[in-house]
Amino acid sequence: MKHSRAKRPDIRNPIRSPGPELAGLTRRALLQRAFAAGALTVVGAGFIAAPNAAWALEVTTIKPEQMAALVQMARDIYPHDRIADAFYAVAVKGYDSADQKALVDEGVAALNAAAQAQGHADYVSIGWEEDRVKVLQAIETTPFFQTVRAGLVTGLYNQKDIWPLFGYEGESFSQGGYIERGFDDIDWL
């Protein structure tokens, strides 16, 4: 994943416009707190921090809570223990747009309503994957679920940085095909 220097957050600068409970915290300290909490942390307007302090995501159109739900939903739909949440965040970042806002507003509301029907505060607060999957099954026929699930196929698996985790070396046409390149060297099949 490539970032330009201009868009990369400077973790040495304090967070702008913090709430009273975050006044004076640096981004590094904030991310360390997120790690200690053990879950995606929604902080202020438009900022989500990861539990492992390895990434953060800024949202502009949808609410940070909605993006946190999308990231968790992506991980629950296509669970891979060896893939970091940052890759799931990249896969759903496209839903932070004006043309997707209504779909996300309604979809996350339905997701949280399904979680509440099963006795939880909201989808992201559900601790067990098995319980989150039950919530997803309750909304799996909705256009929201189908759109997110279908978008994840390319949004997640087209990220070249995760291909080595699956043993995929990429396309072969530009390198003369697979026959002379060890096409059968994948040991996990």
From TrEMBL:
The keyword Transmembrane applies. PROSITE patterns: TAT. Keywords: Membrane, Transmembrane, Transmembrane helix. Residues 1-20 are annotated as: Disordered. The chain crosses the membrane at residues 34-57. It comes from the Bacteria. This is Twin-arginine translocation pathway signal. The lineage of its organism: Bacteria, Pseudomonadati, Pseudomonadota, Alphaproteobacteria, Rhodobacterales.
